[in-house]
Design goal:
By secondary structure, the chain is α/β, with parallel strands linked by helices. Helices cover 43% and strands 17% of the residues. The strands form 3 sheets. A 6-stranded parallel β-sheet has the order 1-11-10-9-12-13, sandwiched between helices. The chain has a 5-stranded parallel β-sheet with strand order 6-5-4-7-8, with helices on both faces. The protein has a 3-stranded antiparallel β-sheet with strand order 2-3-14. The relative contact order is 0.14.
Length: 423
């Protein structure tokens, strides 16, 4: 059963801690990375047979497979995917940055160019569930940024095929290539390149502990988005919300992963008890009941604060991936929330809207990293290059200042490079 904790009456470690077991996967992942780097496709095919029980002769998904999958997905779901893609495009198009130039002084021009990365690799998890939402959320911003080639890796089922909804979402999003490979070996392929899979400049997307560790180890050879997971939700609510709504919202994240975190912060003990009871009722009806039960028992908690302002202070300290603000006039509190991956406003805005449909990205910072990180965006797929131009006269005016500055740092060659042009 989910715990109820009274803020101020228990230690802060009970309020802010969570159970996150340490997985010792570094050496296993390092071995996989080195094998793929050395042996390429051969290693990938062997890992696919070992981990996914699929015997493959080719890794790339063919155009025929994509079209066949698209036709097999119910038309109703295709329509929903297209609506979601439209919302995601509409939101992320507002994130596009423009290059700029400053030339308001004679003889001086400075500026910045916005340039998309050439190739992006998207990891889409497989295993216990298929995530077409991840395909849309990760590939659409890349396309909007202007990335020339967007590549997906995702593990196949034991029949060697990719879930049709993944392929349908990829077709709608305009993904260029799809490969049947998962796990740390997929990250290695994207980072180093193989005979079939091109090396990318940036890897994005969620995954298990092996995928996360692989992303850590290849960072520097390529860029990555973030090390995300397990999933989190924090609901700030007053007593006027229907407890059924709150229980359902907390369980929506608990069913993701046994390590997921579901937290309610409220100013009402009576409401807390009602939500606790409702969680138990709804848990018994979930298909993923065992996963949700372990999540709720390990990392679920209801924190009772004295006031809503105190509840928001607690939320800011936790800095959750998803934050629901279930109060009257939620926009009155928006400016008080400083640390959250994504905020859901009001009593009729469940986090699941953000997972699939509303438009803002669902690849979000977790484990308190919302204090210094941001959701995946168009910015993740661009880089900035700056440039400077001075005429002879413009340099002459400032050469002594530059030289003086350089000498203060003990860098006389720097100073000389500015003054030598006028000796």
């Amino acid at each position: 059963m989910i715990r109820i904790l009274k803020y101020g009456e228990v230690e802060n470690k009970d309020i802010f801690s969570r159970v996150v077991p340490s997985f010792n996967v570094e050496s296993i992942v390092a071995e996989i990375l080195e094998n793929v780097k050395t042996n390429g496709d051969k290693a990938l095919i062997e890992y696919c047979e070992k981990f996914d029980k699929a015997k493959l002769t080719t890794l790339q998904v063919s155009e025929e497979e994509i079209n066949e999958a698209f036709e097999s997905v119910p038309a109703e779901f295709i329509e929903i995917l297209e609506k979601a893609a439209k919302n995601i495009r509409k939101f992320h198009e507002k994130q596009v940055r423009n290059s700029f130039i400053i030339n308001d002084e004679d003889g001086i021009v400075v500026g910045q160019k916005i340039i998309p990365v050439d190739r992006a690799g998207l990891y889409v998890p497989g295993g216990t569930a298929a995530y077409p939402s991840t395909v849309l959320m990760d590939s659409i911003p890349a396309k909007i940024a202007g990335v020339k080639e967007v590549v997906i890796t995702t593990p196949p089922s034991n029949n060697g095929k990719i879930n049709p909804v993944i392929l349908a979402a990829a077709k709608i999003a305009g993904v260029d290539k799809i490969f049947k490979v998962g796990g740390a070996q997929a990250i290695a392929a994207l980072a180093f390149g193989t005979e079939s899979i091109p090396k990318v400049d940036k890897i994005v997307g969620p995954g298990n502990a092996f995928v996360a560790e692989a992303k850590k180890q290849v960072f520097g050879n390529v860029s990555i988005d973030m090390i995300a997971g397990p999933s989190e939700i924090l609901v700030v609510s007053d007593a006027n919300t229907d407890p059924k709504f709150t229980a359902a919202d907390l369980l929506s994240q608990a069913e993701h992963d046994k390590l997921a975190s579901a937290v309610l912060v409220t100013d009402s003990m009576e409401f807390a008890i009602k939500v606790q009871e409702e969680i138990e009722k709804q848990l018994s009806m979930l298909e993923r009941q065992d996963i949700a039960r372990e999540s709720i028992d390990n990392n679920g908690k209801i924190i009772v604060a004295d006031t809503l302002d105190s509840a928001i202070e607690i939320a800011n300290e936790i800095a959750p991936e998803h934050l629901e603000l279930c109060v009257d006039n939620p926009f009155d509190y928006l400016d008080k929330i400083k640390h959250a991956g994504s905020i859901f406003m009001g009593r009729y805005c469940p986090e699941s809207l953000g997972d699939y449909y509303a438009g803002p990205n669902h690849t979000l910072p977790t484990s308190g990293t919302a204090k210094f990180s941001s959701p995946l965006s168009v910015d993740d797929f661009i880089k900035k290059t700056q440039y400077t131009y001075y005429t002879k006269d413009a340099l002459k005016k400032v050469a002594k200042d530059v030289a003086y500055f350089a000498e203060k740092e003990g860098l006389t060659a720097h100073a000389k490079s500015a003054t030598i042009r006028f000796e």
